[in-house]
Write a structure and sequence with these properties.
This protein has 250 residues and is α+β, with helices and mostly antiparallel strands. It has one domain: Creatinase/methionine aminopeptidase superfamily (Creatine Amidinohydrolase). The protein is built from four helices and 15 strands. The strands form four sheets. The chain has a five-stranded antiparallel sheet with strand order 8-7-9-14-15. Strands 1, 2, 4 and 5 form a four-stranded antiparallel sheet that branches. Helix 3 packs antiparallel against helix 4. The protein starts with 7 loop residues before the first helix and ends in a 5-residue tail after the last strand.
């Protein structure tokens, strides 16, 4: 497995890329409401990324047609924005966005409530976010990647949530997807984290079972049982001290 340590200059650029991702999410939180289309959200994200002299990482990636993934309710990841998909009161929507700034990538996702949501969905969002930060807390020089996966799994299991098995976190920086892959459950992984690694941690948890499948558009991943799914992600810099979240406002 070839894992790239990032230089001080690369980390600096990744902070800039991460700041742009955070600015997009700040805008998503502000504007998401019933009546908007997911295409509206995509256009807002595109505008912010371009205003900050960055490139939308997802746009054109393996043919993906948009700047964000917008995944609604039982959609897990890779939902394609559309003017026909209109947000309704009680929905939850996961927004995943990548920004490439001077060749370095920031990648982050968040799941938002649309108006008032059910108590079950509130629990799903709170627990998935909690699992993200439990995983990040373990990202220290010398720790095992398995510790990250296990921390996420433990939070998910505490509320009996399904864990998406086919997708997970990944190295990120010079490319959107780098080694290592990060499972959101224990697999016996002895990979050791080192200062200078940059990894996107991204739990995807479901109100129902673990199982998911891809729709005929070859992108949108949905839960098999149709129950809601949440997705939270930060790009994180492993250091010899506290983990540094790169996808935050500067």
């Amino acid at each position: 497995m070839s894992v790239h340590k990032k230089s001080r200059e690369e980390i600096k650029l990744m902070r800039e890329a991460g700041n742009i991702v955070a600015l997009v999410h700040q805008e998503m939180k502000r504007i998401i409401e019933p009546g908007l289309s997911t295409k509206d959200l995509d256009e807002a994200a595109f505008r912010i990324i371009k205003e900050h002299k960055a490139v939308p990482t997802f746009l054109g990636y393996n043919g993906f047609p948009a700047s964000i993934c917008a995944s609604l309710n039982g959609e897990v990841v890779h939902g394609i924005p559309s003017e026909k998909t209109i947000l309704k009161e009680g929905d939850i929507i996961s927004i995943d966005v990548g920004a490439t700034y001077r060749g370095l990538v920031g990648d982050g996702a968040w799941t938002y409530p649309v108006g008032e949501i059910s108590d079950e969905c509130k629990m799903l969002l709170e627990t998935t976010e909690k699992s993200l930060f439990a995983g990040i807390e373990k990202m220290r020089d010398g720790a095992l990647l398995e510790d990250v996966s296990g921390a996420i799994e433990d939070v998910a299991k505490s509320k009996n949530l399904g864990i998406v098995r086919q997708y997970g976190g990944h190295g990120v920086g010079r490319n959107m997807h780098e080694e290592p892959f990060v499972f959101n459950y224990r697999v016996g992984n002895s990979f050791v984290l080192k200062d200078g690694y940059t990894i996107a941690i991204e739990p995807m948890l479901n109100l129902g079972g673990d199982d998911v499948h891809t729709l005929e558009d070859d992108w949108t991943v949905v839960t098999n049982d149709g129950k809601p799914s949440a997705h939270f992600e930060h790009t994180v810099h492993v250091t010899d001290g506290e983990p540094e979240i790169l996808t935050k406002l500067l």
